[in-house]
Design a protein that fits this description.
Length: 326
């Protein structure tokens, strides 16, 4: 039979398959999100995220040490606070002596070589559980920027390398960049949550931080899952306003958005493989319905293939171990 083109020839052995692979997963691309709680000597597993814990600072430092030894270079820290630390204006968010900011300082002192990333949004500190100031049921945009600016400054002072505004207020990247530059923090990077969708896949994360909105939802600031072109508007703004890297969140249900931004912009693109995506695979694997390891690797690879340069993922440690043994 005369078949000149036989694509299967390039798939005939493992050696050839790896040789022609267009995409690879590397530990260099991973950022591991970690949850911080008050106290010492405590490590609490998150019910909907098997093998992911909230750590007190002492144990968090040990976890970072282990992960750094596995080659993970990026860490993003999220604080989980008691209700007594929350208020309407998220003031604890910019207290330089807060649990979060003192932890950042200690982490950076002990691990100067890691890329330490933060989260900027009011929700972990807000008694309303929203990312912005709430007034008569509305989320105030410009008033919120002032608080985000103060949070950014406190985190930069604590030694953070990359700030991650996850709030989706308009104009926040420009506002934060200006605050940082005025204070001399011209070297602190901004990874903007550019296309952050109002997604049900954040459920387990909100359990982890106890940060679910006390009323309503986040649809007046996070993006509508129906929209793709709107991601271009957000990306245009964030890049013009000074974002060094841009993010798409969640990842798996939004691979088209990752590709869209990759095709249109030259800044590095991050995919946030969120809590619900982690929970989904873990639950199916626990039931024996899916091969947990293979589906994890396949989904992370698909994010790279779509165009992600960086992946924020709760699978980071597990993947780092697997990649090390390959
Ligand atoms: C806070 C924030 C959220 C996540 C990261 N930063 C939750 C939200 O917007 O409600 C979600 C991460 C995840 O689900 O893994 N603004």
């Amino acid at each position: 039979m005369n078949r000149i083109r036989r694509p299967r020839r390039n798939r005939k052995s493992a050696a050839i398959r790896t040789m022609v692979a267009e995409t690879t997963l590397s530990v260099n691309d991973l950022i591991f999100p970690l949850f911080l709680i008050e106290g010492t000597g405590k490590k609490e597993e998150i019910a909907s995220m098997p093998n992911i814990y909230r750590y007190t600072l002492d144990l968090l430092l040990e976890e970072i040490k282990e992960c750094a030894a596995l080659g993970i270079k990026g860490f993003c820290i999220f604080p989980s606070l008691g209700e007594d630390k929350k208020d309407k204006y998220a003031t604890e968010g910019y207290n330089p002596n807060s649990l979060y900011n003192t932890a950042l300082k200690e982490i950076k002192t002990q691990f100067p070589d890691i890329a330490l990333m933060t989260d900027i949004a009011m929700d972990p500190y807000s008694s309303d559980g929203h990312d912005g100031i709430v007034e008569k049921g509305e989320i105030l945009n410009d008033e919120t920027l002032e608080i985000l600016g103060k949070m950014a400054l406190a985190q930069a002072e604590a030694g953070a390398d990359i700030l991650g505004p996850s709030d989706m207020m308009d104009g926040r990247v420009a506002y934060i960049r200006n605050v940082l530059d005025q204070a001399g923090y011209t070297n602190v990077s901004i990874m903007s949550y550019t296309a952050k969708y109002a997604s049900a896949f954040y459920g387990p994360f909100r359990d982890a931080l106890d940060s679910a909105p006390k009323f309503g939802d986040k649809k007046s600031y996070q993006m509508n899952p129906a929209n793709a072109k709107e991601a271009l508007i957000e990306a245009d703004l964030d890049i013009t306003e000074g974002a060094d890297m841009i993010m798409v969140k969640p990842a798996l249900a939004y691979l088209d958005i990752i590709k869209l931004l990759k095709d249109n912009y030259d800044v590095p693109i991050t995919a946030y493989n969120v809590s619900g995506e982690y929970a989904m695979l873990k639950a199916a694997a626990e039931k024996g319905w899916l091969d947990g390891e293979k589906t994890m690797l396949e989904s992370l690879l698909s994010m790279k293939r779509a165009g992600a340069d960086i992946i924020l993922t709760y699978f980071a440690k597990e993947v780092a171990r697997i990649l090390r043994n390959k």
